[in-house]
Amino acid sequence: MKKLIAILSLALLPLTGFSSGGGGVHLESADIDLTDEAALQRGAKYFVNYCQGCHSMKYFRYENMQDFGLTKGQIEQNLIFGDHKVGELMTTGMSALDAEAWFATAVPDLTLTARLKHGGADWIYTYLKSFYVDESRPFGVNNVVFPNVGMPHVLMELQGVQEATIETDEHGNNHVTGLKLVKPGRMSAEEYDGVARDLATFMAHVAEPMKLERQRLGIWVMLFLLVFFVVSILLKKEFWKDVH
Ligand code: HEC
Fold first, then answer.
1. More confident residue, 8 or 213
2. Mutate to test the pocket of ligand 1, among 56, 58, 95, 107 (most ligand atoms within 8 A of CB)
3. Could you tell me the distance, in angstroms and rounded to a whole number, from the CA of residue 107 to the centre of ligand 1?
4. Is the pLDDT of residue 140 over 90?
5. 75-88 pLDDT, tens per residue?
6. What pLDDT is stored for residue 104 in this prediction?
7. Counting beta carbons within 10 angstroms of the beta carbon of residue 9, is it exposed (0 to 12), middle (13 to 18) or buried (19 or more)?
8. Which candidate among 5, 92, 102, 172 keeps its CA 20 to 30 Å from the CA of 62?
């Protein structure tokens, strides 16, 4: 019995990690809905406008945006800048060399980020909301879930400027205990949350475009198993009814 409990708790161990992501930092729930086509379309629009200048999604093609209700024409007209074709992959205009020179680090591809980051869409959502002023950093900002981040706060004009309350613990480590908006941006807090949520939704879709399809299939498989179960019970009864 003890052994069984030990095995069970080992098996469940990975689950316990999910509650706190990003090294113990509290993540906010993005509460995304992957079936929300309007949110996916807005997320794609924000991505090409605010992110693709630096980041690629080099395993995702523009034309795949048809999966959430856009036509090829709409994609070509509204979501492709430069000389890209609708069938091409979403690369970035920035070369790796420029990136290295400007950011002293590689700019990561974002195709799979929603799957690679512990916390997934919640991590992205919290990340986009957690930039704060830190003059010691090259771009004047730091981030709660990505300490010493090398990315500028590209959505600052929308969100505004946040300052952090920082407490130092007994080991001399600094912890951000709160964020305060000290200079409003163009958007209200709710509107900005919407932008962060839409981007997280789009990135979650791109990281796993088959997820919805899998869930739909899963339901049919369960239904099939259920029907099959009933049929086998009936069959069993039929076979055994004369045997006593
Ligand atoms: C000016 C260039 C630039 C723009 C524009 C930009 N980023 Fe970044 N981003 C970076 C750099 C550089 C890093 C790497 C930071 C590091 O490693 O310290 C990064 C890192 C990230 C990461 C962490 C990825 C990982 O694998 O750790 C995410 C998520 C991200 N960016 C999302 C976005 C989103 C969403 C947008 C658009 C709203 C955006 N970025 C716009 C430069 C940019």
1. 213
2. 107
3. 6
4. yes
5. 999 999 888 999 99
6. 83
7. exposed
8. 102
Which atom of ligand 1 is closest in space to residue 51's alpha carbon? Answer: 37
Q: How many CA atoms are closer than 13 Å to the CA of 88, on its beta-carbon side? A: 12
For residues 203 and 43, what is the distance between their CA atoms, to the nearest angstrom? 8
The protein residue whose alpha carbon is closest to atom 11 in ligand 1 is 151
**Residue 50 beta carbon below 6 angstroms from any ligand 1 atom:** yes
Nearest-atom index, ligand 1, CA of 102: 12
pLDDT at residue 20 is higher than 50: no
- Ligand 1: does its nearest atom lie under 6 Å from the Cβ of 27? no
Count CB-CB contacts under 10 A for residue 166. Answer: 13
Q: Residues 166-171: what's their mean pLDDT?
A: 91
- The predicted-structure confidence for 39-67, as pLDDT tens digits, reads as follows 999 999 999 999 999 999 999 999 999 99
Work out which ligand 1 atom sits closest to the CA atom of 47.
37
Per-residue tokens: 191: 């509107």
Q: Write down the pLDDT at residue 9.
A: 61
State which ligand 1 atom lies nearest to the alpha carbon of 155. Answer: 38
Q: How far apart are CA 191 and CA 92, in angstroms?
A: 27
Give the span between the Cα atoms of 197 and 180, in whole angstroms: 20
Contact between 56 and 113 (Cβ < 8 Å):
no
Closest atom of ligand 1 to CA, residue 116: 26
Instruction: Give the distance (Å) from ligand 1 centre to CA of residue 130.
Output: 13
Residue-wise pLDDT tens digits, 191-202: 999 999 999 999
